[in-house]
Amino acid sequence: MMGLQEFLADNYRTELAAFRAVLAGIPEDAFGVDRLGHSPAWHALHIADWLRLTVLGDRTANYHYLGWEDKAWAQAMKTDAAPVREDASKADILARLEMVGAQAVAYLQNASDADMEGMTFSPSAPGGERPRLAAVGLHLRHVAYHRGQVVLGQKA
Protein backbone atom coordinates (compact mmCIF):
# COMPACT_ATOMS: atom_id res chain seq x y z
CA MET A 1 0.00 0.00 0.00
CA MET A 2 1.21 3.49 -0.87
CA GLY A 3 2.07 5.65 2.13
CA LEU A 4 1.05 9.27 2.56
CA GLN A 5 4.42 10.70 1.55
CA GLU A 6 4.63 8.64 -1.63
CA PHE A 7 1.01 9.56 -2.44
CA LEU A 8 1.78 13.28 -2.08
CA ALA A 9 5.04 13.03 -4.02
CA ASP A 10 3.32 11.11 -6.83
CA ASN A 11 0.48 13.61 -7.06
CA TYR A 12 2.89 16.57 -7.11
CA ARG A 13 5.05 14.82 -9.71
CA THR A 14 1.99 14.26 -11.92
CA GLU A 15 0.52 17.76 -11.55
CA LEU A 16 3.86 19.49 -12.07
CA ALA A 17 4.47 17.41 -15.21
CA ALA A 18 1.06 18.46 -16.58
CA PHE A 19 1.79 22.11 -15.73
CA ARG A 20 5.22 21.97 -17.41
CA ALA A 21 3.70 20.33 -20.49
CA VAL A 22 1.25 23.22 -20.87
CA LEU A 23 4.04 25.76 -20.39
CA ALA A 24 6.35 23.93 -22.81
CA GLY A 25 3.70 24.17 -25.52
CA ILE A 26 3.69 27.97 -25.45
CA PRO A 27 5.87 29.62 -28.10
CA GLU A 28 8.92 31.50 -26.81
CA ASP A 29 7.60 34.83 -28.14
CA ALA A 30 4.33 34.43 -26.19
CA PHE A 31 5.85 33.13 -22.95
CA GLY A 32 6.35 36.57 -21.43
CA VAL A 33 3.13 38.12 -22.73
CA ASP A 34 0.43 38.91 -20.16
CA ARG A 35 -2.81 37.08 -20.86
CA LEU A 36 -5.74 37.48 -18.47
CA GLY A 37 -3.56 39.31 -15.97
CA HIS A 38 -0.27 37.39 -16.05
CA SER A 39 2.14 35.83 -18.50
CA PRO A 40 2.90 32.11 -18.61
CA ALA A 41 6.37 33.07 -17.33
CA TRP A 42 4.79 34.69 -14.27
CA HIS A 43 2.60 31.63 -13.60
CA ALA A 44 5.67 29.36 -13.74
CA LEU A 45 7.62 31.56 -11.32
CA HIS A 46 4.56 31.95 -9.09
CA ILE A 47 4.25 28.19 -8.68
CA ALA A 48 8.01 27.85 -8.11
CA ASP A 49 7.82 30.50 -5.37
CA TRP A 50 4.83 28.87 -3.70
CA LEU A 51 6.47 25.43 -3.88
CA ARG A 52 9.42 26.88 -1.99
CA LEU A 53 7.22 28.57 0.58
CA THR A 54 4.49 25.96 1.11
CA VAL A 55 6.23 22.63 0.53
CA LEU A 56 9.86 23.40 1.34
CA GLY A 57 9.21 25.99 4.04
CA ASP A 58 11.92 28.23 2.57
CA ARG A 59 11.69 31.72 4.10
CA THR A 60 14.54 33.26 2.05
CA ALA A 61 13.60 36.88 1.30
CA ASN A 62 13.78 36.60 -2.52
CA TYR A 63 10.12 36.00 -3.39
CA HIS A 64 8.75 38.20 -6.17
CA TYR A 65 5.90 36.15 -7.64
CA LEU A 66 3.62 35.30 -4.73
CA GLY A 67 0.74 37.31 -6.14
CA TRP A 68 0.15 39.19 -2.90
CA GLU A 69 2.71 41.92 -3.51
CA ASP A 70 0.46 44.62 -2.02
CA LYS A 71 0.54 42.88 1.38
CA ALA A 72 3.15 43.72 4.02
CA TRP A 73 4.10 40.07 4.58
CA ALA A 74 4.86 39.62 0.85
CA GLN A 75 6.85 42.85 0.67
CA ALA A 76 8.98 41.68 3.60
CA MET A 77 9.77 38.49 1.66
CA LYS A 78 11.22 40.24 -1.39
CA THR A 79 14.14 42.23 -0.08
CA ASP A 80 16.65 40.22 -2.16
CA ALA A 81 16.78 39.79 -5.94
CA ALA A 82 14.55 37.13 -7.49
CA PRO A 83 16.45 33.92 -8.38
CA VAL A 84 14.95 34.14 -11.90
CA ARG A 85 13.02 37.10 -13.28
CA GLU A 86 9.91 37.05 -15.42
CA ASP A 87 11.84 38.53 -18.36
CA ALA A 88 14.36 35.63 -18.34
CA SER A 89 14.33 33.12 -21.18
CA LYS A 90 11.64 30.47 -21.30
CA ALA A 91 14.35 27.82 -20.83
CA ASP A 92 15.67 29.50 -17.68
CA ILE A 93 12.18 29.89 -16.20
CA LEU A 94 11.23 26.29 -16.95
CA ALA A 95 14.57 25.13 -15.50
CA ARG A 96 13.77 27.04 -12.30
CA LEU A 97 10.33 25.43 -12.07
CA GLU A 98 11.84 22.00 -12.77
CA MET A 99 14.53 22.41 -10.11
CA VAL A 100 12.18 23.65 -7.38
CA GLY A 101 9.55 21.08 -8.36
CA ALA A 102 12.10 18.25 -8.09
CA GLN A 103 13.17 19.53 -4.66
CA ALA A 104 9.53 19.63 -3.51
CA VAL A 105 8.81 16.10 -4.77
CA ALA A 106 11.97 14.77 -3.12
CA TYR A 107 11.10 16.52 0.14
CA LEU A 108 7.59 15.05 0.15
CA GLN A 109 8.83 11.57 -0.72
CA ASN A 110 11.36 11.62 2.11
CA ALA A 111 9.31 13.53 4.70
CA SER A 112 8.71 11.93 8.05
CA ASP A 113 5.29 11.77 9.65
CA ALA A 114 6.47 14.53 11.99
CA ASP A 115 7.35 16.71 8.95
CA MET A 116 3.73 16.48 7.83
CA GLU A 117 2.32 17.40 11.25
CA GLY A 118 1.94 20.76 12.91
CA MET A 119 1.21 24.18 11.53
CA THR A 120 2.84 26.08 8.69
CA PHE A 121 2.83 29.63 7.34
CA SER A 122 -0.23 30.25 5.19
CA PRO A 123 -1.06 33.93 4.68
CA SER A 124 -4.60 33.34 3.40
CA ALA A 125 -5.60 31.37 6.50
CA PRO A 126 -7.05 33.08 9.57
CA GLY A 127 -4.09 33.82 11.81
CA GLY A 128 -1.62 33.22 8.96
CA GLU A 129 -1.14 29.49 9.61
CA ARG A 130 -2.83 26.24 8.68
CA PRO A 131 -2.11 22.56 9.30
CA ARG A 132 0.89 21.55 7.18
CA LEU A 133 -0.85 18.66 5.46
CA ALA A 134 -3.82 20.86 4.55
CA ALA A 135 -1.46 23.52 3.17
CA VAL A 136 0.34 20.96 0.98
CA GLY A 137 -3.02 19.69 -0.31
CA LEU A 138 -4.28 23.18 -1.05
CA HIS A 139 -1.09 24.00 -2.90
CA LEU A 140 -1.46 20.94 -5.12
CA ARG A 141 -4.84 22.31 -6.23
CA HIS A 142 -3.19 25.71 -6.64
CA VAL A 143 -0.83 24.24 -9.25
CA ALA A 144 -3.80 22.81 -11.16
CA TYR A 145 -5.59 26.17 -10.97
CA HIS A 146 -2.63 27.97 -12.54
CA ARG A 147 -2.30 25.29 -15.22
CA GLY A 148 -5.89 26.13 -16.14
CA GLN A 149 -5.14 29.87 -16.07
CA VAL A 150 -2.31 29.39 -18.56
CA VAL A 151 -4.55 27.34 -20.86
CA LEU A 152 -7.33 29.95 -20.68
CA GLY A 153 -4.84 32.74 -21.32
CA GLN A 154 -3.74 31.13 -24.55
CA LYS A 155 -7.34 31.09 -25.75
CA ALA A 156 -7.86 34.80 -25.02
UniProtKB/TrEMBL annotation:
Residues 14-150 form the DinB-like domain. It holds the Pfam family DinB_2. InterPro entries: DinB-like, DinB/YfiT-like. Signal peptide: none annotated. This is DinB family protein. It comes from Deinococcus radiopugnans ATCC 19172.
